[in-house]
Amino acid sequence: MTIADAESTAAQIPTQSTYQHRVADYWNAEENPVNLELGKIDDLYHHHYGIGEVDWSVLDTGPEGAPEPPSRADHRRARITAELHRLEQAQADLLATRLGPLTPEDRVFDAGCGRGGGSVVAHLRHGCFADGVTISGKQADFATEQARKRRIDHKVRYHHRNMLDTGFPTGAYAASWNNESTMYVELELLFAEHARLLRRGGRYVTITGCYNDAYGRASREVSLINAHYICDIHPRSEYFRAMARNRLVPVHVQDLTAAAMPYWDLRKQAEHLVTGIEETFLAAYANGSFQYLLIVADRV
């Protein structure tokens, strides 16, 4: 069965739980400037955070004590927005480099693709086919239009589907990933679907926030993040247990927590983009209850 055959028989509306309907409603209504304004820079719209050192000169306001003219303030806001986008792009690039050796004939799967930036990044790097899946019909339509504008819609396609039950053919993918989307689903079901879709030897990658079991139960800060995003952050250990039960063997694990903190330090100072959750992320990272991980696994 080809991907096109699967699409012709798939239901238009994905099967969803009551919780997933709430998540879909959230993302169908979401118009957050921190997602939209950054994406407008180069039409790469990401729904994850950023990593790397910040160019703090973007915060310069001019001579100390002098009032900041409107033109300078606008310029500073634009520079901050561009710097945050650069850090988010750095994360997307890191994930794309970990997908393994891919050819233009290979197909990759972006689970929880949002507005589609990650699929485009993977295609531009490897030349591969990409299928992005999101539970939000609005996001799928937006991402499809972006691919059409880039004239890559013959290779990069987006689907309004449930990442736990895609309907795509078994073993059709050389690589797959989640970038900041695992906290919206049960890991056991998610990794079972990735294992089904990946060919033997295929590569799975995730970048995700998880709570640190060594700290104990989920901290207050983790609970606040859950409430803010209507998600359910998983403990670190559950990723590895669920992968092992579904034939996904980790080959590389990288703690990105320290690399993620500068992004949040800058974002809390971006008055035009703050969402109110920035200090919570920084506190969770600092007290050790929350970690930002890259996990690379092979399908055996």
Q: Could you explain how this protein is built, in words?
A:
- With 300 residues, the chain is of the alpha/beta class.
- The chain has a single domain (3-50, 81-299), classed as Rossmann fold (3-Layer(aba) Sandwich).
- Helix content is 43%, strand content 18%.
- It has helices spanning 3-9, 18-29, 33-39, 70-97, 117-126, 137-150, 187-197, 220-229, 236-245, 257-267, 278-287, and strands at residues 107-111, 129-134, 156-160, 173-179, 198-211, 248-255, 290-299.
- Strands 3-2-1-4-5-7-6 form a seven-stranded mixed sheet, with helices on both faces.
- The longest helix is centred in the first third of the chain and has 28 residues, at 70-97.
- The protein is globular.
- The two termini are 22 Å apart.
- The mean pLDDT is 92.
Short description:
The chain contains 11 helices and 7 strands. It is an alpha/beta fold. Helix 3 packs across helix 4, helix 4 crosses helix 5 and helix 7 crosses helix 9.
